[in-house]
Amino acid sequence: MLRQNLGYKILALLLAIFLWFWVTITQRNAVATQPATVRVGMHGLNKRIVAQVNPKTVRLILRGRPDALQSPLPPPQAYVDLKRAQVGRHMVKVVPVVPVGARLVRIEPPHVELTLEPIIIKAMKVEANVIGAAPAGYVLGQPQVSPAAATVSGVPAAVAQVRHVVVNVDAASARPDLVQTNILRAVDESGEEVEGVTLSRSQARIVLPVERVLSYQTEPVVVRTDGAPAPGYRVTAVSVRPAVVTIAGEAQRLQQLDHVRTVMVDIDGATADINRVVALVLPDGVTSVSDSRVQVSIRIEALRRSE
Fold this sequence. Notes:
By secondary structure, this protein is mostly beta strands.
């Protein structure tokens, strides 16, 4: 009985070994076909030339072991060799890179159209493009841009479209003096940005002089008093020197004024004349051009008995 069981075990082991060998050999001999769409690369391109390929992708039909196609190393690739290519339009052969364990059946298409154009460089002045208007009461000066120039590079057709290299500056928030750093843009005659060109600088610094515009007008000075003279006394005259002052500010503010007042002059309990130098009270944004202080004279007299 033991010998019979041992015989079965040996038979089973031999059968297992046979099956393992059979599966291994079958898998090794298995072959699959798989397509791969890859982008066409460029090798040996001169830095002074721009290249375009059409179509941009090709289809590689690969055949090989399933494991090699599922996780290909290196991955399938395709490129065109541009080491000896000349400016112009050409039909060139696509060079495939096939993974280990696979072979190339065919390339669809085997050739691509290659267009080579020279890169030209053009120096242009950087211009400030002022957006919006200055706030009321301010006037804009001539903007100063740094750097003053930049180069535009690209294929001749694209560079020819560039009419201006501009940097925008927003004047709506302008205050003396406005400094901004903004992006440079290459634009055509209509102000639209031109694609396919490269600028030597990405940003520029703009200094926009902003000056406040002032209006001037002359107004009388009005003396303000606080309190009253002592009993039996009265104010008989009030004078101020200068009687009028010139003030400056935004026109809108000045239109609201018809006089300029002094600070309060205390006359409470006074029994004699008051002579004092006092300051003017001016609204925000308004200044006195001529005098900021004035001489105030207040005459105090005793009441007559009959009064």
